[in-house]
Structures are given as C-alpha cells and as structure tokens.
Hints:
Blueprint (H helix, E strand, L loop, with lengths): L7 H15 L7 E6 L5 E4 L2 E4 L11 E9 L2 E8 L10 H11 L3 E5 L3 E6 L8 E5 L6 H12 L6 H4 L14 H15 L4 E6 L5 H14 L6 E5 L2 H9 L9 E3 L11 E5 H4 L19 E4 L14 H6 L4 E6 L5 E4 L2 E2 L4 H6 L4 E3 L1 H7 L5 E8 H5 L29 E3 H17 L5 E6 L2 H14 L1 H5 L4 E3 L5 H5 L1 H4 L9 E4 L12 E7 L5 H8 L14 E5 L19 E2 L41 E3 L6 E9 L5 E4 L1 H17 L2 H10 L3 H10 L4 H6 L9 H10 L6 H11 L7 H17 L1 H5 L15 H8 L3 H20 L2
Parallel strand pairs: 5-6, 9-14, 9-17, 10-12, 10-13, 11-12, 13-14, 15-25, 18-24, 19-26, 20-22, 20-23, 21-22, 23-24
Antiparallel strand pairs: 1-4, 2-3, 4-5, 6-7, 7-8, 15-16, 18-27, 27-28
Amino acid sequence: xDKYKLSERDICTKFIxxxxxxxxxxxxxxxxxxxxxxxxVMVRGKLAARIQNPEAKGGPKRADYVLYxxxxxxxxxxxxxxxKFSVGHGMQQALSYAEMLDVPFAISSNGNxxxxxxxxxxxxSVETELSLxxxxxPDQLWPVYERWKGITSTTNTLLExxxxxxxxxxxxxYYQRVAINRTIEAIAKGQNRILLVMATGTGKTYTxxxxxxxLWKSKAKKRILFxxxxxxxxxxxxxxxxxxxGKYMHKVTDRAxxxxxxxxxxxxxxxxGKEEWKQTYLQFPSDFFDLVxxxxxxxxxxxxxxxxxxxxxxxxxxxxxxxxxxPKEKKAVDGEIINPEFNYKYFGEPIYTxxxxxxxxxxxxxxYKVIRIASNxxxxxxxxxxxxxxxxxxxxxxxxxxxxxxxxxxILERRTRFVAKKIWEYLSNTDPMAKTxxxxxxxxxxxxxxxxxxxxxPAAASNRRYVMRITGDDKEGKAQLSYFIDNDExxxxxxxxxxxxxxxxxxxxCKLIVLDQNIxxxxxxxxxxxxxxxxxxxxxxxxxxIMDFKGATRLFSxxxxxxxxxxxxxxxxxxxxxxxxEDDNLDQDPEPNNDDRPKDRTEVREPRKKFYLDDVAVxxxxxxxxxxxxxxxxxxxxxxxxxxxxxxxxxxxxxxxxSGFLRRWNESERKQAIIDELAEHGIDLAxxxxxIPNGKEMDAFDLIAHxxxxxxxxxxxxxxxxxxxxxxxxxxxxxxxxxxxxxIEKFAENxxxxxxxxxxxxxPPFDRLGxxxxxxxxxxxxxxxxxxxxxxxxIELYRDDLTA
Length: 804
C-alpha cells in the first residue's frame, strides 16, 4: 500500500482513528468531521448564497476530529492531512479551531506521526512530535486541562452535567458551548458576578437556558430568577427556550410572590415600584435565589442609582449572570468621563465575547446591505424666513435647522412623505411582504410615518394591519407585536416605532430596517441593527437591508462596531450628549398599570417646542448603496452600476450572445417561459427594472437586450406607438382590430406578459366585446386563430429588433 496515494479520509480511517482508539479513547469521546460554522452568506444585489467551498475564505469550517475528556468538555482538535504533506502542515488550521472551541490541545497529523501543540503554558513543551503509538490518553490530558482552567476534581460533577436535549439531535453551537462551559467553570471556581457578551441573534437566551439547566439539574443552583425589562421578552422566553422547565417555572405577576416554584421569570416593572406594596421582590427572603440572570443588562438594571438595581442588591448573595449584546458605553466630553461604565464595574470583564462580525463570518448571522438616502433638507439644512408661520398658527423659531432637529423640533411633513415614498419604492421593487421596522425619533413621528405609508401602499387601504404603529403608548399596536414577530403571520408587514422594538424583540424574518431616527449611542445602534441579524433560510431570509435617512450608519465606520464590545464613545463637538434610557420619549413596556414603571428621575421638563410645516419642498439629494465584502468591510458602490453588472453577467450566462437571445425571444411561444427561466436564476422583472433609469417604463425584452447586450432600449409606449403608425392590422375585421388595439394599450401599460395572459380578455375594455370565449371563437374564429393574432402582434412590437 502506497500511503502517499491515500486520500485525507483514508489517512483518518487507516491510521489516525486506530491510534486514537489504541490510546484508550472510547468511541463516545471523539467525533469525526465536526461541523463548526455554516459558511458565510455573500450578498450581491438582490442575490444571496452561502459560500459552500470549505477551502474558500468564509466557507464552512469543519474539524477532522474533536476529542472530549468529559461529556461536555472538548479538550483537543486534530487536523488531518495527506501523507505527502509534513506532519505540521495542518497545525495552523488546528490552532484556529482550538481557539474557537476553547480547547488546550491542537494536533496535526499526516498519518505518519502527530504534532501536539499545548496552548496552556502549563507544561514545559509547546509543541511535541509523537509517534502513532504515543498518542496521549485522556488521563494524560485532563490534569493539564484542570490546571489550565484552575478547577479541581471536586467540581467535576457540575462540569459533567449534560446539556438539555429535546431528542432532535440539536445541540449548542460551538460558541454557545464555550460560553456555557466558561460560565459553569467560573461558578465552579466560586465566581459570583459573570458577564456574557453575545451579539443579537446568536442565542443569548438559549445559552442562558442551558447554563441554568445544567446548574439546576446538578443541584448547584436550586432556585433561579430570570429578570428582563420587556414583557414580550419574558413571554418569549417562557414559551420558547425555557419551555422544558414546564411545571417548575413561574412568571411573577399580580404583585404576588409564590414560593413553591424553582425557576422564576419576572419583569422588573412587576417587582419594583416607589411604594413598598409594589416592591414584590421584598416578599422573598434575600437568600431565596441561588442564581439571578439579568437579560439585556446593559440597560438600567445595572445602574447604581436605578430602582431596578435595588433588586440585584437585595439578592446580593446569589450568583449574578449578566447577558448583553453591547455593554453600556462610557460617554466622554473633552476627555472627561461623565458616566462611568457600570457593567464592567459590577460584573467584571466579560468571560466570553461573540461579536456581530464573527457571527456573520461564521454564517450564523445575516449580513446586511446599507442604502443611505439624504434629502435636500438633510444635506443642506433648512432656515425658515423671518415670520414663518407653521400650519397651527405658531411663528417658527428663527434659526438654522438640520437633521437632528427634524421630527423633534421641526416637523417637515413633506420630508416624512419623502421617506415613506422611498420605503415603499424599495419594498414594491423587492418584496412587498418583507417584514419591515421603521425606527422613528418619537411616538408622534411613528404615527405620522404610519399615516404616510398607509396613504402610499395600496394593500394598506384594504388591510389595516399592513402598517401598524407599535409603540409603548398604543395598546392596540402593542397587541400586534406577537403577530409581527411570528414567522408564519404575514401581518403586520411594516411596524413603525421609536424605542419599543429597539431591543430584545425576536423578529427573525425582518428583512428591512429603516433608520429615520437620530442615533448617537453605539449601544442603541447595535441593538437596532440586531433586529435584522437573524438568519432563516427556510423563510428565504439570508440577508437584510438597512435604509438610512439620518446618517446613523456613520457608526459603521467606528472601529469598535464589529470588534470588541464598545467601552468609550466620544461624541463630536456638535453632537448632543447621548440620551439615557430614561429619555422623555422612551417607549416602555410596563405592566397594564403605567405606575408600575420605575421612576428614578424627579426632574420635570418643559414640553419641547415643535413646529409643523407642510409647505417645504423635499426631494432627493443623494443616494448610495453599500454592502459587506468578504473581509467584513462596507464597500460603497454605485447601486445601479453594481446591479447592472451583476444582471449582465447572469443574462449572458443564460443567452450567450445577442443573436442567441433574439432567436430565443422570437421562437418562444410564450415570453413568460423566458421570464420564469430568469427567475430560477434569481432575477425577476423588478430587479431588471431597478438596474437602469426609467426601467419601469420598459418591457422585459428591452431590459434584457440593454442590460446584457447594450442595445438601445425603447419604452413600452414607444413600441406601441410604432405599431399604431404602421397600421399593421388592416386584414382584420373591425371587432378584431379593436381587440388588438386594446391589447397594444395594455402592452404600453404593463408589457408583453399582459398580452399573453388570456384572462386579460375578462377585464375592461374587452368585456364590452363579449366573454373571453366569445372574443377568441366568435371574433377571431377559434383559440388557435386568436393565438396566431397574438403572435403577429408580438412580431410587430419587436419587428425591427428581431430582424437586426
């Protein structure tokens, strides 16, 4: 047997696996071809697809072997290569996987020997070459792991407690396992304040559930409290991730502390309040809970002067685990820290961080496109003339207004209309049923935006739930929130909001996020972007689009955006201080009684002056599109040019040459067949129409011929007029000519597909000439004769081009 001719898989089967087994590793202690990542999703225009090639940058990652010292604790990664390579050829790959999995040993092998790399620093040797017979046994590696992690054999029972399994074979992803194991290890070592930072959409709540499950099952923690500050978060958690707790689980409501459960979930507002009778948490003994998990802990719960923080102080003896996507930033003005970061002070440094950038790179989070649109008033600002009176008779304050004023101090109604028009233009040209969240500055702004969208969208006239305002002050709107986030509920399609949907709400199929809100806080920005990061391939959700009208996406250029959690934010000189969670326009999600919300501020503010103008002209100043490249950088592009190039390539692949396309078009009995073929390649007419100016006025033929082969396009109306001038239907009777002339008008309106659709004969003006059957058989003499007339009409429409 010539070992050098064997494949990598043969090397594993014939040499590496036997060596592992001979060293004492049982079959349930090592796993082969372990999938780690899914493969990054790449977006180009309207098309998106995963990178399938494991060798490509961003492709799926798979470890040849992962070895487990204990049921839940991976300890080594082995990367195999063919015998023609050196023993260390796979080491860099093995080290990368070992770092991902948080394991101490990376091993490379070519079937002749092993090269073992010790990442712990505990032993004297970093890399050691071992023969196939000298592969280490579990008892040799485990003591090194214990010393590396600082754990003892007395904690093994806790570490070995299995994950919850629902029988489907689904388990935590690699990064969730690392977060869970690090938390369990920290608690095993006696650490009582723990912070986990995981990007929105990466399964923080599921990770928390597995942590709680293992601690609860091992009886290390017998009573657990899960705290959140949105009612929807508590309900989602109970119904989804925490459902396996079943009868042992209880939601604290009605200001009553029931003490016969083990897993408690509570809304801060339901257990706190100014009056003592509202402070439900005091009904529990201070040592009642062994573990408190604080969801979205970057918000008010961890702030020292917050009433909510009193809950944490009261249950001080319990272990506290904070969950967040973005630790709260420090705010600095002229270098002076004015609001120290409290999460790090309270919880300590995060024991694990999984960033948005890493989630996109691994293929677990959806990448995004960015479309930045600036109106003329946003680009130049607006200064009212002296003595300007608004629509309610108030004299407008004389000063220069810019983007940060619009929709707060100065309401330009035509600007709201402009934004709504752009939103609907995008949706109507892509997917009118795409779940969309429009973030507005205030609740009043969200209502005005709802009204403008309703006026524009035809479907909204017949279905009041197509567009809904979902804000904290609107009970009917909030009642629709559960439908909006339900993957299988089509309505509401569009939700206008200000703060309520900023965090926590799990809208997995959201495809469009509209930013018409002034955002200066990196924390808030990350949370908003997180509304779109969920991937749902089964619902054709592979990426999402951010449409920005107020320059919020400038924060993408911050080097901290996709890297480590934000710690310091220094606003520009002309920017306001970042608003706090207690801002006067915050959409809270309180219990039914509004008095239940915590009130930490005693300051009374005067109502802000607002002026409403409905006569200021607003139009487009600039529009540009950006997308993420393979390195995770935002690339600015000419959206039309990029789309045109992409479509041109796809069309040429389909038709080859211009003559090939003309022949196909001419010979095709139904042009719909060609359109369907393009759709199978991910290109539809709406995409073609976006690619060139005035594309909506052109027929499919002209769009394809121009985009793929640079032919001069004609509009549908121009083609229809050419046929009319030629008087091409002189051989037909008056009624038949009337039908064909009406079909030409339909072509001018909508294109060739209307002509080919026989149901068009059931609509005006054809219905005045008789039924569909009467027209085809009575006027034209039969179905075949009618179809021949349609064929001749199409030849006339494209005559000059098809003979070119």
